[in-house]
Design goal:
Elements: H1 9-21, E1 37-41, E2 44-47, E3 52-55, H2 58-61, H3 70-80, H4 93-110, E4 114-119, H5 122-136, E5 142-146, H6 155-159, E6 176-180, H7 194-206, E7 217-218, E8 223-224, E9 226-231, H8 247-257, E10 261-265, E11 289-292, E12 304-309, H9 310-313, H10 331-345, H11 349-370, E13 374-380, E14 383-388, H12 398-408, E15 413-415, E16 418-423, E17 426-427, E18 433-436, H13 444-463
């Protein structure tokens, strides 16, 4: 095992400049010294010393289709040579056709007419969705959201994100969430099946509507104080927690009974991360609003947006000027988004992702049998989790996972004579969960390689 790396002279010059000139507001130095990266391809990134790292988090699931995907890169290059830019209030073919593609898909899957509105990223699209649901509910600013939920760090998005850390210094600007327990079965009551726990969570939520004195419901007028429930069908930053399949169906029944909209946040789990275009599709419910971003453009362009039911977003109720962004629906982003849809329609992409996910999960389950510090593994498609715990297999162990992340970034592991690093992402309520979001284009040999690298990190962690 090598000592901590020392930055090269060239890197140190850049790090000194970063320390002086760059805001740290969106910077997390997980290791010291931080790596500076120079190129990427497929499932790998290389630092300035040309050390390769297998990436199992793919830019927080923004690069679902692999770094420098040739087909998607070419779509961007071709668009640059034709219509690279146009103000968002003007029409272009890409905006119209991408909206159609998303809306027609939703009609086929959910039986609902709807429209698409674009913005420049996930958090900004959450803000647009808040406008839509507030408008539809006559200005109600209270929302339901989940414990462990993450929806972004703009002012509105952070107000419905369960971490107080993200809003502590800024106060509240209208929206406010009532955070409801998520069916996190591994840390739920013992002696219950996953499905039983899911039903119990729904029943606890339904209690809020039993009488007016439970705080949210006026039975005399049949009105709820809350406009919508924001859900991540699979929790992202919360640790890739996968609920039981009965959960959202039962929850949606309660919401529909009380006139509460369901907003499905697909920013991290959309675009086939879970084996379907939208992760909510696994649960047999009809969302009222879908929010998307990240992998729509494979990280090549900051384009996100919302799909909403026709009743919520038609021009009569949501007229021109309701919201606006200069770079929304820009031609470069929509060109890549259209090509992504074409690419994933040419093969059974969902089946491919589910098969790879099953294979990867079986490998994680094998590691779990051999390493007691792995308390839980789970997955849906290629959204996978590996929870690192103490020797009892349950007590959260953030320190050990932090150690594993640092060791992975040393770039000194050897597999079949190749020197490699491993990029992992940390999530979970206790920051003790490896949230695995590999490229959906990852090969089976690369999955095997990732498992071997994880095994080396686990060996180091147990021997330290």
């Amino acid at each position: 095992m090598s000592d901590i790396r020392i930055a090269t002279a060239e890197d140190q010059i850049l790090l000194d400049k970063e320390a002086k000139y760059c805001s740290y507001g969106d910077t997390v130095h997980y290791i010291e010294p931080p790596r500076i990266f120079s190129r990427c391809e497929g499932s790998y990134v290389w630092d300035t010393e040309d050390q390769a790292y297998l990436d199992l988090q793919m830019w927080y699931s923004a690069v679902n289709f692999g770094y420098a995907n040739p087909r998607l890169n070419n779509a961007l290059k071709q668009q640059i040579d034709t219509l690279p830019q146009i103000a968002s209030q003007y029409l272009h073919k890409g905006k119209i056709e991408l909206s159609e593609m998303i809306a027609v898909d939703a009609k086929n899957k959910f039986g609902l007419d709807g429209r698409v509105h674009f913005n420049v990223g996930g958090s900004q699209s959450i803000e647009d969705s808040l406008k839509v649901v507030r408008n539809a509910s006559n200005g109600k600013s209270l929302m339901f959201a989940f414990e462990g939920g993450y929806h972004g760090r703009t002012l509105g998005a952070s107000s419905i994100t369960s971490s107080f850390r993200y809003r502590r210094r800024y106060g509240h600007f209208g929206e406010r969430a009532n955070f409801i327990p998520f069916p996190y079965h591994f840390r739920g009551p013992k002696g219950m099946t996953k499905e039983e726990y899911g039903s119990q969570c729904v029943q606890q939520f339904a209690r809020l509507f039993e009488t007016e004195y439970n705080g949210v419901w006026d039975p005399k007028t049949n009105q709820c104080e809350y406009a919508a429930f924001y859900v991540e069908p699979i929790q992202g930053t919360g640790g890739y927690v996968i609920p039981p399949m009965n959960f959202y169906r039962e929850l949606k029944q309660v919401l529909d009974q009380h006139g509460i909209l369901m907003v499905s946040d697909e920013i991290q789990m959309g675009f086939y991360r879970t084996g379907k275009l939208w992760s909510i599709e696994h649960f047999d419910v009809q969302p009222d609003v879908i929010v998307f971003g990240k992998a729509l453009t494979n990280g090549l362009n900051p384009l996100g947006g919302i799909w909403a039911r026709e009743e919520l977003i038609n021009p009569k109720v949501f007229p021109p000027g309701s919201t606006h962004s200069t770079f929304a629906s820009n031609p470069l982003g929509t060109a890549v988004g259209l090509e992504m849809f074409k690419m994933t329609s040419e093969v059974d992409y969902g089946a491919m992702v589910m098969a790879k996910g099953k294979y990867f999960l079986e490998g994680l389950q094998d590691l779990q049998k051999r390493f007691p510090i792995i308390g839980d593994v789970d997955g849906l498609g290629l959204a996978l989790r590996c929870e690192i715990c103490g020797p009892d297999g349950f007590t959260p162990d953030k320190a050990t996972l932090d150690y594993m992340v640092e060791e992975g970034m040393k770039g000194d592991m050897i597999v079949d004579g190749q020197k490699l690093g491993l990029i992992l992402d940390v999530g979970g309520y206790y920051k003790n969960v490896i949230t695995l979001a590999p490229s959906l284009e990852i090969s089976y040999p690369e999955i095997d390689l990732g498992l071997k690298l994880l095994e080396q990190l686990l060996v180091r962690a147990t021997k330290r």
